[in-house]
Amino acid sequence: MLGIREISNFLPQEKLYNYDFKDKFSIDEIFIKEKIGFEYLTRKQKDEKASNLCIKAYEKLVDVDKNAIDCIVLITQNGDFKIPHTSAILQDKLNLTKNCACFDINLACSGYIYGLCAILGFMQINGFKQGLLFTCDPYSQIINDDDKNTALLFGDAASVSLINTEPIYVPKAFKFGTDGAGFEAIFCQKDRLSMDGRAVFNFAMQIISSHIEQFLQENSLSKEQIDKFLFHQGSKFIINSLAKRLELDESKMPFLAKNYGNTISSSIPLMLQSQLLEQNAKRILACGFGGGLSWGSCILEKNQKEQK
Question: Which helix (H) or strand (E) holds 15?
Answer without folding.
Answer: strand 15-17
